[in-house]
Amino acid sequence: MAEGLRERKKRQTRQQLSDVATGLFLERGFDAVTIAEIAQAADVSVNTVYNYFPAKEDLFLDRSRGVVERLSRYVRGRDRGESAADAVLRELRLQVEGVSPAVGLMEGYERFMWVIEGADGLKARLWHIQQEAQRHLEATLLEESGAGAGDPLPVLVAGQLSWVHSTLMAYIGREMVAGRRPAEVSRDALVLLDDIEDLLGEKVLNYARRAAE
Length: 213
Known about the structure:
By secondary structure, the protein is mainly α. Helix content is 72%, strand content 0%. It has 11 helices and no strands. Helix 9 packs antiparallel against helix 10 (182-199). It is globular, with a radius of gyration of 19 Å. It starts with a helix and ends in a 7-residue tail after the last helix.
C-alpha cells in the first residue's frame, strides 16, 4: 500500500530528529546532550521529540526494531533444504562479504562505538535489545520447528544463534575501533564465521531444516 502524505511526513520528522540527535551525540557524547538541545537544534518542541522517541536512548538506537527481528527474519526466509543455522550463517556471510553497514562495516563506525562505550544507558539498552532479539528468535524457532510445549531446543538453539551474531558484531566493533579499514575487517570476519560454524554442534546446525521439496 502506498505511503500517505501524513505517514511520509511523520517518517521524515522521525528521521530528522534521529539524524540531528546522532550528530550531537557523535560530537559531544551521549550524556552531554539534552533532549531540550536536540529539540532546539531540530526546531521542534521537546514534546515533539518525546512523541517520536519515548526515551533518549531511542534517538541513537533508532533502528533497534530491525535488530530485534533480524535473526528471526533470516530463519523465516530460509531456503528449501536449509536449517535455521544455515540461513543465519549464509545471511551474515553475505553482509560481511558485501562490507555492509548493517554489520558495522563502514567508515566512521568507530565513532558510533565510542558513543556507546561512554554511556552506561546505551550499553544497558543494547543488552535489552539483545535479550529481546533472542526471545523473538526463540518464538520463531518454536513455530518453525513445530516443537511441543516444554521442548527446550528452541531456547537452546536461539541462544547459540544469538551467540553467533553477537560474537561477530563484537569482533567487528573491536576491529573498527582499532582503526582498521572495513574491507580488511570483512576478510577476517569471514574467517571468524568459518571458525564459529566449526564450533556449532550437529543438533544446532541441523535444527529446523526446511524440507527440500
